């Protein structure tokens, strides 16, 4: 597998991870597993005629009214390979979705860690100001 092919696959995973992380799973009223729902809807959307139609349908499936800007950037980068992507996702959707879900969870974890760091710094600064004001 070439470096270009690996990069394309990673960008596809990045795109799916961005979308997965934007889905409001709390609004999904179903007894099915979120991962299964995502897998099935990615495969179904992959039947569209082009990559933009795929993205639009995937957003519609999950109630996303617009495509996140960072997802649009990735989508534009991978668009020249849209037919390979759509064909691949129609048959290999599960591994790509699992990789995307793992990446979305990693991103969420990193965001939470960053938020905690910021809160710790803010609390530290607030405590120092309180001591100075005493």
Question: Can you describe this structure?
Answer:
The chain is mainly α. The protein has one domain. The chain has five helices and no strands. The protein has helices at residues 3-22, 34-45, 51-61, 69-78, 82-133. α1 packs across α5 (82-133) and α2 (34-45) packs across α5.
In short:
The chain is mainly alpha-helical. It is built from five helices and no strands. The relative contact order is 0.15.
Break the fold down into its secondary structure elements and pairings.
Elements: H1 3-22, H2 34-45, H3 51-61, H4 69-78, H5 82-133
Provide the succession of SSEs: HHHHH
| End-to-end distance | 65 Å
Proportion in helices: over 70%
Indicate the structural class: mainly alpha
Compute the number of helices.
5
How would you characterize the largest beta sheet?
none
- What is the residue-averaged pLDDT? 89
| Gyration radius, rounded | 19 Å
Global geometry: elongated
The portion of residues forming beta strands comes to under 5%
Count of discrete structural domains = 1
- Poorly predicted runs of 5 or more residues: none
The strand count comes to 0
């Amino acid at each position: 597998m070439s470096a270009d092919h690996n990069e394309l696959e990673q960008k596809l995973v990045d795109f799916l991870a961005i979308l997965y992380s934007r889905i409001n799973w709390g609004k999904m009223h179903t007894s099915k597993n979120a991962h299964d729902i995502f897998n099935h809807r990615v495969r179904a959307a992959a039947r569209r005629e082009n990559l933009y139609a795929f993205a639009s349908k995937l957003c519609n499936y999950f109630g996303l009214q617009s495509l996140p800007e960072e997802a649009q950037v990735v989508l534009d980068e991978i668009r020249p390979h849209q037919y390979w992507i759509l064909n691949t996702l129609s048959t290999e959707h599960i591994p790509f979705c699992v990789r995307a879900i793992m990446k979305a969870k990693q991103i969420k974890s990193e965001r939470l860690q960053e938020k905690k760091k910021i809160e710790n710094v803010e609390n530290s600064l607030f405590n120092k100001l309180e001591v100075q004001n005493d």
